[in-house]
Amino acid sequence: MRTFIMQVKNNFMRLIVRNPRFFLCDVAIPAGFYVLFTKVMNQGMPASFNQTYLISMAIYATILSSIITVANNIFTDREQQYMRFIDVSPISRGSYYTSMGTVLFLLTLIEVGIVEAVAKFYIGVSFPLTTWLAILVLASLGSIPIMILGVALAFCGSSDLISMMTYMLVFPLAILSGLWWPMQMMPTWAQHIGKLLPTYQTSVIVNDVVNQKSWSLTATGGEVAWLVIALVILISVQKIKRVQQA
Questions:
Q1: Mean pLDDT taken over the chain
Q2: Which residue, 6, 93, 98, 151, has most beta carbons within 10 Å?
Q3: Contacts of 82 (CB under 8 A, 6+ apart)
Q4: How confident is the model over 35-49, as a mean pLDDT?
Q5: Which residues contact 154 (CB under 8 A, 6 or more apart)?
Q6: Among candidate residues 43, 69, 213, the one with its CA nearest the CA of residue 153
């Protein structure tokens, strides 16, 4: 257990504390979008817009970290022979991936918490403490299937290919699931696709909790389905990679 805690601490320092790209990409961009749209481009928006857009930007922050940060960091560890170091150390690969998952989940908690802090102390959004905690926990848990997809991307080829694939996932997820602007503004075919995405399921669940509606079993089932799909994709990609290296 002590070895695992040290591994979590080391990964936390190198992936978050010593990584300025994390604060720029995963925190500053969604927080900046939130301020821009709620302070500057909010003409004609309903009074509830500040609250609903908070949820959208919290989920958008988790997309950035779960895909871009996860894929790039795991790929870098593989390219820099960090995995060979793990193989000759007392730490197993299972412990490495578990510690990475722990740190990356903490990362999502931090970035969602920062977006919430901007909403409360700068924009003036008011929620009970339980609602703030619900947004924090549910948005972070909803990122797990996407995080697994980010891990799968790390095994898909060169850094250029991975970078291209991450952005090909991030922007469609954000746009089609209605995080940047209302889904009703999109064509019908785009709405049908958007409602199948994991980020949309997370948005439905969080908004239902915030608005004190009944828990959506359909959205929960969608999240579970995406978790299974992501695991199948990760296992398949790793098997293909092992065959190629054999």
A1: 87
A2: 151
A3: 76
A4: 79
A5: 70, 71, 72, 73, 74, 75, 78, 162
A6: 69
Cα-based distances in Å from 242 to 94, 151, 160: 17, 15, 21
Tell me the pLDDT tens digit for each residue of 199-228: 999 999 999 999 988 888 999 999 999 999
Return d(Cα 166, Cα 71) in angstroms, integer. Answer: 8
